[in-house]
Design a protein that fits this description.
This protein is mainly α. Helix content is 66%, strand content 5%.
Length: 507
């Protein structure tokens, strides 16, 4: 092994350790940014206790009540392992750091296996890209998904159909967005045929992946309910989305292009260089270049539609840039670049001086940008929801209400906290309001009007007769809803703290 290859490995390990350390630094608090964290922790705790959740009565007015699927089953097993060794809070944060840095490691090793130069540099760019690093340091299965997808790229390029079958099977059990794998394999096969006429090889790869995905869907503890669930999650929520009709989560709204660029400025600088080189060296581009380009553009378009795809967009921007820069920069690239640009400007001397000035500017700017992005992620990831959010109110309900009694809560995004701290009671809706909207639109709008304080006269009747609620839990910021409840003497206040008030519905 050459000195350069040894150095690459050493630098990749350093980037891995730096990513792990940064993740722990960013998460060093009892707070979580994403409310779904509590759901993931609860599912992990259930698995750690030996309980496989097949029925889901904790959302009484949601499609999940009858058609629940743990779309992150393998991810929850990983969280469960960390929760057993450590406490749930510490174990969850360690698992996030391990998966985040694990993806950075896999990314570097995969692009290195493809002959990409400076794999550690591209890993560093990913690590400090704010939108990407922020999303991968949430308690979500995104990092695990990316580990699988980039491993699949390696298996495609190295032509390992049997391993691809197994990985595709695993992907279905790990992440509900498994159709991404099918699209990626199809694209690779398409360009494999266009450039090299490898019909047989491409069809075998496509068949292996499709077979693994199909097996993962069918050989599944949630089959056949998972078919309806995948349709709701991937198509209704992920692609169609009802953001113009109902109040969905913030991640499903568009990402302004200017904000995306400013958040991942280094990645976009290299993307600009890659596009320039792609055009300059257009005739020499290979199948992997076009494959990376189309995937990158696809995820960029999805990200501009919904923010939640940024965790795929940024890695594929960096992947595309890495491939193009390595392919299109010859040994004497600097001289050729100066000559080409100088010919365009007709002022080579001025161009050369300007280029040196630009390099010096970047030498000072890049460290400053990296420092700023590290600080921004720390500020974002250390605030949000306390691990103990609604724990006292939930404990009161658990100790003072009948098991299975329904609690009408004031917002859908507090459901994970309620479920985490109290599985004795049942609730209305959580995770995504689309599950309730598609379950019963009339009930959905009744719940919305009650929680927003727009329904003033029939709150008790609707809560009692339509939702069969025994208790109302109102967060402190839902003042209109609380005033409407207090006007009706058929509600009795039974609990109050600085987070929420609980009312019992009298007979």
């Amino acid at each position: 092994m050459s000195v350069r290859k040894h150095l690459d490995i050493i630098l990749i390990v350093i980037i891995f350790l730096a990513a792990f350390s940064l993740s722990l630094y960013w998460q060093a608090s009892e707070y979580f940014t994403d409310p779904d964290t509590f759901y993931h922790m609860k599912m992990a705790e259930s698995l750690a206790d030996g309980k496989l959740i097949l029925d889901f009565p904790w959302q009484q007015f949601s499609l999940l009540n009858d058609q629940f699927t743990d779309q992150h089953f393998l991810y929850h097993i990983i969280l469960a392992g960390f929760s057993v060794v450590f406490t749930t809070l510490v174990g969850t944060k360690l698992a996030v750091a391990f998966l985040f840095s694990g993806f950075i490691l896999v990314f570097c090793l995969v692009i290195r296996s493809l002959g990409v130069k400076w794999p550690w540099l591209w890993g560093l760019i990913l690590t400090v890209s704010v939108p990407f690093a922020f999303r991968l340091n949430l308690v979500k299965a995104n990092a695990l998904s990316l580990i699988i997808l980039f491993t699949a790229i390696y298996l495609l390029v190295k032509y390992k159909p049997a391993w691809l079958f197994g990985l595709s099977f695993v992907f279905v059990w790990a992440y509900g967005g498994w159709p991404i794998m099918a699209g990626m394999v199809f694209l690779y096969g398409f360009f494999n045929i266009v450039f090299y006429r490898k019909w047989k090889e491409s069809l075998i790869l496509l068949g292996s992946s499709a077979g693994g995905l199909l097996a993962g869907v069918i050989i599944n503890p949630y089959f056949p309910n998972n078919l309806t669930y995948y349709w709701q999650q991937f198509v209704q929520i992920g692609i169609i989305n009802y953001q113009d009709k109902i109040g969905v989560g913030g991640e499903w709204y568009p990402y302004a292009f200017s904000n995306l660029v400013s958040g991942a400025v280094i990645a976009f600088l290299f993307l600009g260089l890659a596009i320039f080189l792609f055009i300059y060296d257009f005739k020499k581009q290979k199948k992997v270049s076009w494959f990376a380009l189309i995937i990158m553009l696809g995820f960029l378009a999805l990200t501009l539609k919904s923010k939640r795809y940024v965790e795929y967009c940024v890695p594929f921007i960096v992947f595309y840039s890495a491939v193009i820069v390595s392919l299109s920069l010859p040994k004497k690239w600097l001289r050729e670049f100066f000559n080409f640009a100088g010919a365009l400007t007709g002022k080579r001397v001025f161009f050369g001086i300007g280029s040196v000035a630009l390099i010096l500017f970047l030498a000072f700017m890049v460290p400053a940008v990296i420092g700023s992005e590290i600080k921004e992620n720390k500020n974002d990831l250390r605030r949000g929801l306390s691990y103990y959010k609604l724990s006292m109110a939930s404990r009161w309900l658990e100790e003072n209400s009948e098991p299975g009694s329904i609690v009408l809560h004031s917002d859908w995004d507090i459901w994970p906290s309620l479920y985490y701290w109290n599985e004795s009671n049942y609730y209305i809706i959580g995770l995504d309001p689309t599950f309730m909207y598609n379950y019963d639109q009339d009930l959905y709008w009744k719940w919305v009007h009650i929680t927003k304080g727009e329904e003033k006269e029939a709150v008790y009747d609707q809560a009692k007769n339509d939702f069969h609620a025994s208790y109302m839990l109102v967060e402190e910021d839902h003042k209109k809803m609380e005033r409407n409840i207090r006007r009706d003497d058929r509600f009795e206040q039974v609990y109050e703290d600085d987070e929420a008030t609980i009312f019992r519905l009298l007979e």
